[in-house]
Each structure stands twice: as C-alpha cells, then as structure tokens.
Amino acid sequence: MRFRLTPRETSFYDMFAASADNIVTGSKLLMELLGAESSARAEIAERMRAAEHAGDDATHAIFHQLNSSFITPFDREDIYALASSLDDIMDFMEEAVDLVVLYNIEQLPKGVEQQIEVLARAAELTAEAMPHLRTMDNLTEYWIEVNRLENQADQIHRKLLAHLFNGKYDAIEVLKLKQIVDVLEEAADAFEHVANTVETIAVKES
Predict the structure, then answer these.
(1) Burial class (CB in 10 A: 0-12, 13-18, 19+), 181
(2) Residue ranges of the chain with pLDDT lower than 50?
(3) Distance from C-alpha of 163 to C-alpha of 109, rounded to nearest angstrom
(4) Three-class secondary structure of residue 188 per DSSP
(5) Belongs to which family (predicted)?
(6) Rounded CA gap, 179 and 100, in Å?
(7) What tens digit of pLDDT does each residue of 84-102 get?
(8) pLDDT, position 4
(9) Which long-range contacts does 156-165 make (Cβ < 8 Å, 24+ apart)?
(10) The whole model's pTM is what?
C-alpha cells in the first residue's frame, strides 16, 4: 500500500458498499420474479424500479462527492468507472424485469434461472468485496471468482440462444425472449467490469 501524507475522503467506501447492497436487493427481486405468477410480476417490477432509483441516487451521491472532494481515496477515473459499472448492473436487472412484464411473458425459457443464479452469486460477492476497498486486502479471490462466473454466464447465454432458435418458438416470441436473456448477459458483463475496475484499483494502490 502506498504511503500518503494527505488525508483522504473516506465516505466513498460507505457509498460503494451501499450501492453494492442495493444490487443484492435487485438480484433477490430477480429470483422472486422466477417463481412468481404472472399477476404478481407487475408488483415485483415496481419494487425493482424503486431499487433502480435508489441505485441512481447512490451513483449521483458518489459523483457529487467526487466533484466536491479535493483528495480522493484512489484515482478519480477509477471512482467514476466503479460507480458507473455498479449503476449499469442495476439498470440491466431492472430492464430485464420490466421487459418480462411489458412483453407479458408467460413462461421464461429453461436456463434463465441459471442466468439469474449467477447474477445473484456475483451480487453477493460484490457486496462482500466493497468494504475491503478500505484496505485492499482479500480482494484477489473476488475478481477471480466474478470473472469465472462471467465465463459461466457466457456459456449459459449461448445455450439459451441455441434453445430459442431451435424452431419451437414463433419469431415474435424469439425476439422478446432473446432481448431478455441478452440484457441478463449484459448484467453479468457489468459485474465483470466492476471486478476488473477493483483489480485495477488494487494494482495501483499496491
């Protein structure tokens, strides 16, 4: 860890932790969506929308703090990248839930539950990792595991696409379902972006 002579603004750590905790809330709502009746999905989507708004507020708070802080705990561009990637995760999860409701999807294809399970695990790991930014300790296993999960998500996504294009769905249904599974894949990519940013920060601070 580099030795610093100047004090640093430490509230960023709490804000990153709060943002990651909110993502866990979003992942739980995704899991809830899987087992919900069609009639209950609109209410879940409303709660997800509220969580996404909370995520936006958390991101804006980080940006405000960044713009008003003379000394930051690590490089400004990394703070911005980390906050933006965390925000992207919530945006993608909220979009997926909203599309399920808007498209009146009766049944999600087999394999979506695996996508969501991967996202839920990545959310847990991310929430556990954020407090370690204070010391930069015990983070290596985090970004290795999130990268492994993203590779797993890629494989699940490819299998889902193969399933959707096997001729059992009509063309309109394929378009709807493909958009949903693509957005869930983007959420997995965003988790990897967070992990890669954390790795970059840790390398710089070592």
Answers:
(1) buried
(2) 1-7
(3) 8
(4) helix
(5) Belongs to the UPF0111 family.
(6) 10
(7) 999 999 999 999 999 999 9
(8) 42
(9) 156/111, 156/114, 156/115, 156/118, 157/115, 157/181, 157/182, 157/184, 157/185, 157/188, 159/111, 160/109, 160/111, 160/112, 160/115, 163/109, 163/110, 163/111, 164/109
(10) 0.92
